[in-house]
């Protein structure tokens, strides 16, 4: 019987599930669109994983990460519920041990993580706005009527440079239209967009930070060749894209679960693949106990309350 | 006079002082989502976050019948100096005719300071004023002592939330105390209650200490900074704030030539980075980061209201300080739009960073 660990990354755009073994090799991975339904997408992913597993597989630990980590962690019975920054850095250090700078661009957030000696020493995350993330590109690709999969490669066909204002998604659009009038081709516009995104990213997140090679670029947007090229142009150095670039968060949290189980010598809290058949009902209500009117989230499993959070005072969280 | 004041930190002390002087105190409600909504609605869009929350507080106090609002002024080129003027107009437009008493440092405009004191003094004798001042200062110091213990205990409590609960009880006990003896008793009882909180035994070496620096209002008022102290405490870190009321009072009440307070030292420590006064608490912010690193703290959380000018300056200097002193600093900007989930992720990652730095690997 072989031992495995599951990592689940529930992001705004995609839900990723991986299965790793004791050596942290990836045996299964799935990249599913979240479509605003984190519970359903995880259930679907776990069902699929179960069907590909051989009989004698033993799940020793489970980790979750991403913005939906708490809910999904409760549902599957995770051993480790980790923030995305730590999860991503863990995976990257495993793949590129001497990494110094990690660029991570996902659907709605982007991060920069500075690593020294395999330790995170600094990080930044986009704050107020999602310009410069995957959603920005997704939107522009749709505007230009080009599938997002082909978007990056098209940027490489450009002959000329064009500068597009990338501070704000909406303004980028009007600038794009203006530039199209000047006779720039679609691929040139795309190249301009890629460069705008990278410029924005470095200005926002890299401000005041010393960016040193090796650089690793991961997250869904790393699939975009145009962005990779723009990064290399901007920083004047080669950028490494790991093999599993789009599921690094899930890999990281699976590694963390493995380490946790190894160090604490405990048994996993994983509820088993049968959870996919249980009914999970998250609901929210306004507390009304004071003027804060906190929105409290309640999760019920087969009509039994298993978790509550969202209250500022802890009245509900501690009630379990 | 029916008086009120901005809600910030341990409010029982302002209340106590005003009560001792014979005023009727209208306690503004603790800032809640409703306060913030009110403040945001009636304040200029580009005003800083503390100003908006305070607007909300004032409106709530006015509705409860406050006639006079007592507040501190600002010094240096920071917008806080204009708060009172703006607030006065906003309140007037909403139909509240409220008088303001603004305290600036007595060394800047001693005449105005004296006038303010006279207004507050009312019919009390000078002896009474002196006694009240000393008593309240004693109270602040005792409360701050206890609060500093709460901030340590919280990291190791077995039952989560107990230290916070005891801290609320302590503040209530102090609220009821009105003579030297009862303050002493409240202090003694409070210490006892804190002693009784069951905690984990943690090795001195494994203790994690984090300082909180930044603009005074977002640092001191837990209800608008996502309860940062509690959050850090629950993640297992001891916390110390850059601002405590007793320090603030001591620093602002003493003339420069005998002012030996901690704050003077802090300002000096910050001077290599920000040599001149640029308003707000920017100098204190950088000074405290230097101080925390010298005292062996593991990290610093820097809180700033979104768009706060002085703190924007300190924010841009922080990477340099952080690097040269080898102390991690996380800046969080706070306003009505900030999402808690996003900030929580950062704080968690920051704690991981600190832990990782110790065991030399990502945890």
Automatic annotation (TrEMBL), chain A:
One Pfam family named in its UniProt record: BcrAD_BadFG
InterPro entries recorded: ATPase_BadF (IPR002731), ATPase_NBD (IPR043129), CoA_E_activase_dom (IPR008275), Dehydratase_Activator_Redct (IPR051805)
Protein name: 2-hydroxyglutaryl-CoA dehydratase
NCBIfam families membership: CoA_E_activ (TIGR00241)
Domain ATPase BadF/BadG/BcrA/BcrD type, residue spans: 6-257
Top-level taxonomic group: Bacteria
Cofactor(s) of this protein: [4Fe-4S] cluster
CDD domains: ASKHA_NBD_O66634-like_rpt2
From TrEMBL, chain B:
Domain of life, source organism: Bacteria
InterPro entries reported for this sequence: Dehydratase_Activator_Redct (IPR051805), FldB/FldC_alpha/beta (IPR010327)
PANTHER family: BIFUNCTIONAL PROTEIN [INCLUDES 2-HYDROXYACYL-COA DEHYDRATASE (N-TER) AND ITS ACTIVATOR DOMAIN (C_TERM) (PTHR32329:SF2), BIFUNCTIONAL PROTEIN [INCLUDES 2-HYDROXYACYL-COA DEHYDRATASE (N-TER) AND ITS ACTIVATOR DOMAIN (C_TERM)-RELATED (PTHR32329)
Protein name per Swiss-Prot or TrEMBL: CoA protein activase
Organism of derivation: Alkaliphilus pronyensis
């Amino acid at each position: 019987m072989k031992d495995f660990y599951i990592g689940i990354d529930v992001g705004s755009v995609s839900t990723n599930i991986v299965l790793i073994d004791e050596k942290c090799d990836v045996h299964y991975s799935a990249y599913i669109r979240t479509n605003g339904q984190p519970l359903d997408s995880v259930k679907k992913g776990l069902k699929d994983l179960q069907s590909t597993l051989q009989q004698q597989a033993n799940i020793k630990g489970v980790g979750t990460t991403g913005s939906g980590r708490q809910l999904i962690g409760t549902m599957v019975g995770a051993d480790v519920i980790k923030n995305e920054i730590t999860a991503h850095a863990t995976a990257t250090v495993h793949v590129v041990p001497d990494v110094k700078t990690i660029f991570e661009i996902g659907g709605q957030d982007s991060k920069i993580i500075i690593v020294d000696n395999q330790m995170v020493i600094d990080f930044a995350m986009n704050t107020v706005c999602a310009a410069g993330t995957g959603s920005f590109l997704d939107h522009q690709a749709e505007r230009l009527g080009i599938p997002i999969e082909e978007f990056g490669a098209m940027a490489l066909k450009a002959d000329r440079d064009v500068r597009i204002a990338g501070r704000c998604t909406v303004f980028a659009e009007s600038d794009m239209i203006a530039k199209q009038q000047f006779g720039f081709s679609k691929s040139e516009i795309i190249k301009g967009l890629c460069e705008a995104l990278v410029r924005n990213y470095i200005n926002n997140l890299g401000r005041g930070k010393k960016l040193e090679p090796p650089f690793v670029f991961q997250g869904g947007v790393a699939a975009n060749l145009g962005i990779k090229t723009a990064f290399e142009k901007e920083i004047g150095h080669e950028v490494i894209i790991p093999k599993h670039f789009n599921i690094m968060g899930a890999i990281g949290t699976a590694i963390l679960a493995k380490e946790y189980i190894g160090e604490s010598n405990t048994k996993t809290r994983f509820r088993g693949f049968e959870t996919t058949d249980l009914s999970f009902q998250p609901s929210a209500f306004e507390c009304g106990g004071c003027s804060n009117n906190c929105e409290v989230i309640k999760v019920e499993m087969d009509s039994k309350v298993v978790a509550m959070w969202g209250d500022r005072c802890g009245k509900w969280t501690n009630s379990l | 006079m029916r008086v009120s004041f901005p809600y910030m930190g341990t409010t029982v002390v302002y209340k106590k002082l005003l009560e001792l002087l014979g005023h009727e105190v209208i306690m503004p409600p603790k800032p809640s989502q409703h306060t913030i909504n009110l403040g945001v609605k009636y304040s200029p869009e580009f005003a800083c976050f503390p100003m908006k929350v305070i607007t909300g507080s004032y409106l709530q106090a006015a509705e409860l019948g406050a006639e006079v609002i007592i507040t501190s002024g600002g010094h240096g080129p920071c917008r806080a100096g204009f708060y009172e003027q703006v607030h006065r107009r906003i309140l007037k437009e909403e139909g509240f005719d409220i008088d303001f008493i603004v305290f600036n440092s007595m060394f800047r405009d001693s005449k105005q300071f004296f006038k303010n004191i006279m207004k507050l003094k009312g019919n009390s004798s000078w002896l009474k004023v002196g006694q009240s001042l000393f008593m309240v200062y004693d109270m602040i110091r005792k409360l701050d002592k206890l609060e500093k213990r709460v901030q340590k205990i919280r990291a190791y409590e077995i039952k989560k939330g107990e230290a916070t609960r005891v801290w609320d009880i302590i503040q209530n006990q102090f609220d009821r105390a009105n003579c030297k003896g009862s303050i002493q008793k409240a202090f003694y009882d409070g210490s006892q209650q804190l002693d009784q909180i069951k905690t984990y035994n943690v090795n001195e070496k494994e203790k994690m200490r984090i300082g909180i620096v930044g603009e005074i209002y977002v640092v001191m008022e837990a209800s608008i900074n996502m309860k940062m102290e509690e959050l850090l405490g629950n993640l297992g870190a001891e916390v110390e704030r850059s601002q405590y009321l007793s320090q603030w009072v001591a620093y602002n009440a003493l003339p420069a030539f005998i002012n030996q307070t901690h704050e003077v030292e802090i300002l000096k420590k910050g001077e290599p980075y920000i040599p001149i006064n640029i308003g707000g608490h920017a100098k204190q912010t950088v000074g405290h980061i230097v101080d925390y690193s010298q005292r062996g703290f593991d990290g610093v959380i820097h809180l700033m209201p979104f768009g706060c000018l002085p703190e924007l300056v300190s924010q841009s200097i922080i990477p340099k300080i952080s690097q040269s002193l080898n102390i991690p600093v996380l800046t969080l900007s706070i306003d009505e739009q900030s999402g808690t989930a996003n900030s929580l992720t950062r704080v968690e990652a920051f704690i991981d960073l600190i832990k990782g730095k110790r065991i030399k690997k990502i945890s």
